[in-house]
Amino acid sequence: MDTAAATSSLENKRSKFGKYLFLLPAVSLLLLFFIFPILLTVIFSFSNLTLTGSESQNFQFIGLENYTQMFRDPQVFKSIVNTVIFLVFSSLIGQQVFGFLIAILMKNKNTIFRRVVGTIVLAGWVMPEVVCALCMANFLNDSGTLNSVIKLFGGTPVQWLYKFPMFSIIIANAWHGTAFSMLVYQAALDDVPTDIEEAAVVDGASNFTILLKIILPNIKGSIITNMMLNTLSTLGVFGLIYMMTGGGPGDSTTTLPLLMYSEAFGSFQIGYGTAISMILLAIGVILSFFYVKASKVKI
């Protein structure tokens, strides 16, 4: 009996070792391309590392000096405000609302209608960020399509990228990312039990009541998941803003990614730039934590 038990225990250990062995490639890639860069960024944020000069080779750890300088820098505070405004209006409101509205309007429509509308909406999403930025810049510039339409109806052209730069990049990012939300909500709405909706219609419930009491509770998980994904992707938007406004006029559209780039590669202050990036990481982690708590998923 002791020999059999020992053999069984050895086989169990081998089985567990085999499972961990198969996980080794995935864990190695995760450590190499995700955990290690984050740790390296944290280390550099406490240093005076520069892109050129003597500090580029012989950098030193300077403690919290970068963070002290950062929180005394009014441009950092301005960038945080710009980032929050851009995030809320282009992602949490723009992409979410437009994506849901398109999905709900396409619900129960015929296949041809859904394919045509879906293709039009997807056109903005499949474009690379830089191409999307160029399209929207040409649409909103002084002699662009929008001003041409305004002049056609007797209006006065507007310098959208100069007078309303934040509005311009919000519209551009909302257009670029709405298709993803539409796809998520289409899949979620297709999974809502139709018999419950039909029963509510028979009981005399209005469309608004069905939406509020039946549809939204059933797709709550998809809403929160989509919000989290949109939040994380929007926090890192760089190319679209850089190509459209360059963070200007002045610093009116300078978000944290643009400020981080400017300090790290414009002013060559890698240490200070990585310290700014830690704010971006902290915002993403905090918001993700609240999203997970709202979805009631155990972590």
UniProtKB/TrEMBL annotation:
Regions that span the bilayer: 20-46, 80-104, 116-140, 160-185, 223-244, 264-292
Keyword Repressor: no
Taxonomic source organism: Clostridium omnivorum
Subcellular location: Cell membrane
Protein name per the record: Amino acid ABC transporter permease
PANTHER family per record: BLR7065 PROTEIN (PTHR43005), SPERMIDINE_PUTRESCINE TRANSPORT SYSTEM PERMEASE PROTEIN (PTHR43005:SF1)
Membrane topology designation: Multi-pass membrane protein
Ranges of residues in domain ABC transmembrane type-1: 81-291
Homology family: Belongs to the binding-protein-dependent transport system permease family.
Pfam family, one: BPD_transp_1
Keyword NAD attached: no
Keywords: Cell membrane, Membrane, Transmembrane, Transmembrane helix, Transport
